[in-house]
Amino acid sequence: MVARKPLYYSVFGLLLTWGLLTSQLVWALEGLRRDAPQRYEVVPGDTLWDISARYLHSPWQWPSLWRANPQVRNPHLIYPGDVLLLGTCEGQPCVTLERGQGVVKLSPQMRTVPEREAITPIPMDLVRAFLREHRVVEPDENLQALAYVVGGDNQRLISGAGDTLYVRGELPERTRLGIYRPGEPYVAADGTRLGDELINIGEARYVSSEGDIARVEVLSAYQEVRNDDILLPLEDRELSDAFVPRAPLNDVSGQIVAVPGGVRFIGRLQIVALDLGTQDGLQPGHVLRVDQQGELVTDPRTQELLRLPDTEAGLVMVFRPYNQMSYALVMQASRVLAIGDSVRSPAR
Asked: Which region holds residue 281: left if phi is over 0, alpha if psi is between -120 and 50, else beta?
């Protein structure tokens, strides 16, 4: 007679085999971290980039790993308290969501779900603060044609909050206005003008007009307002919190052309200007690799000058593309980055 193993041993063996197979499938995904958590509870302060980096060596591959659960409301949004589970979907590694409801019991008959804010792709407060201060005028728009300050009350040359300004040019009525001062023009390496930076120095509101002269009231001022400063309707500063880190659909290559604020050396979470924009296919959330040019060395035998291969130095994520240029946030920097470093599509 052949002795039969107890049923629980057979079940244990099946579970163990399934676990090993699942593990092999999970680690088979190129770029998945070996220390990726099987279960992760989202905490306040997390960003989508942070979570992607917990699971992947290349966070821009997140869309290939994430499987939104259609049974939950807003399946593409992730909230603090949600639980992410690493497993397999149709034979492929994936991360799925267990929605944490945040339910508070008030009585046997009533429950309430506190309103929660979804986690953001990147530190959006930093980005929003930057966009309050910086704006780009496209190169085909003439700065000289924009409305500008011609004077203040009582012949003031410098004005501040609460003062009245007189502005010449076309202004929309009943609109909040930004007061701007031209910064440095953005120029590509070949001399192509990419756009003009405007630095926000305050806000104003339209009061009245006579002919081509408008009267406006300064509501706030971060610097003194001077004659020849420019007024424009405030642009929509709302950014979508739903964009995700991903590689561009097409191969692109360009350069870091400027660092707003005049910083020379660039590190993580600093903002850079790129000579690529929507005309190159860039969208918010697109991730680009930063390369630094290899050094020139002398061949010890032939005495030839040789250029060493470029070195990968970091990653940037586009958050505000314009037509010919974009603002991007440095997400990783293994070296100090600099103006002139090249950017390109990362390996998919």
From this structure: left
How many other CB atoms sit within 10 Å of the CB of residue 8?
A: 8
> By C-alpha distance, which of 42, 235, 265, 238 is closest to 124?
238
pLDDT in tens, 71-94: 666 767 889 999 999 998 888 889
Instruction: Give Cβ neighbours of residue 216 (< 8 Å, ≥ 6 apart).
Output: 164, 165, 166, 167, 171, 177, 204, 205, 206, 207, 231
Residue 173: CB atoms within 10 Å: 9
Q: CA dihedral defined by 141, 142, 147, 150, rounded to 10 degrees?
A: 160
- What does the block give as tokens for 116? 């929660």
* pLDDT at residue 102 greater than cutoff 70: no
Nearest to 248 by CA among 347, 314, 127, 325: 347
Residue 63 is classified by DSSP as H
Contacts of 207 (CB under 8 A, 6+ apart): 164, 214, 215, 216, 217
pTM for the model: 0.81
DSSP assignments along 212-248, one per residue: TEEEEEEEEESS-EETT-EEEEPP-----TT---B--
| 75 Cβ contact list (under 8 Å, min separation 6) | 68, 69, 97
- Bridge-based pairing state of the strands 337-338 and 287-292: unpaired
The 3-state DSSP class for residue 211 equals coil
DSSP conformation class of 12: H
Tokens of 218: 């300064």
